[in-house]
Every structure is written in C-alpha cells, then in structure tokens.
Design goal:
118 residues, alpha+beta, Ribosomal Protein S5, domain 2, four-stranded mixed β-sheet, 4 strands, 41% helix, 19% strand, globular
C-alpha cells in the first residue's frame, strides 16, 4: 500500500522549484494541459500542479487537482526516467467528465514520454 502514496519527496512544493523548472524545462502541449518537463538526476519523478483561477471556481480547481494527483499516484511507477513535471491546466477542462480528464492525462503522459526520446 505504501507504493501508492504521494509523499513530500515526489511533489514540487517550493516556488524556486517551479521557477527553475519553467526556465530549464521542455514544454509539452495538449488541448487541455500544458506540461513542463525537466530531467533530473534523482531516483524518482516529481510532480507539481498548477490550476489558475481562469479555469474555474475553487470547487472545480480542486477537483482537477485531485484527479491529476490521483492519476500520478497510480501511474508514477510506469513513467520512465526521473523528471520534474509541472502540469498546468487550461480553460475548458471543467466541462469534461472525470473519465475524459483521465484520458486526456493518458495522452499527455504519452507525449511526455515521446518528447523525452527526441
């Protein structure tokens, strides 16, 4: 059960971490998400989630953040490499169902894996 946790070590938490990631990272675009990815020399992936007020009200933003965290929590072992990933939600995401958001996240993480090979 401990494998499916999301401890502090696998999250981006400080502003400085987000800033260095945005300066050094590679950007991957999708219709509803934007991901900034940067390789690192650690043993695990780390994730940061950004959802601005443009996306929706607090209830909608928190729902999106919960879904992204849950997706990453279950899929973090299947993502190859050790990277810092900041996922930024875009407008229009609140109109999708939970299943549609998961499908969009699947496509985004496939793009992230392909961008790494380039």
């Amino acid at each position: 059960m401990k494998d499916f946790s999301l401890p502090k070590e696998v999250r981006l938490r400080k502003r400085a971490e987000f800033l260095t990631l945005s300066k050094q990272g590679k950007t991957v675009y999708s219709q509803y998400f934007l991901a900034i990815v940067c390789d690192r020399s650690n043993q695990y992936n780390r994730i940061g989630i950004t959802v601005s007020k443009k996306v929706g009200n607090a209830v909608a933003r928190n729902r999106i953040k919960r879904l992204i965290r849950e997706y990453f929590r279950h899929k973090k072992h299947s993502i190859p490499g050790a990277r810092d990933i900041n996922i930024i939600a875009r407008k229009g995401l609140t109109t999708l169902s939970n299943r549609q958001i998961i499908e969009k996240l699947d496509k985004l993480f496939i793009k992230i894996a392909l961008a790494d090979k380039e």
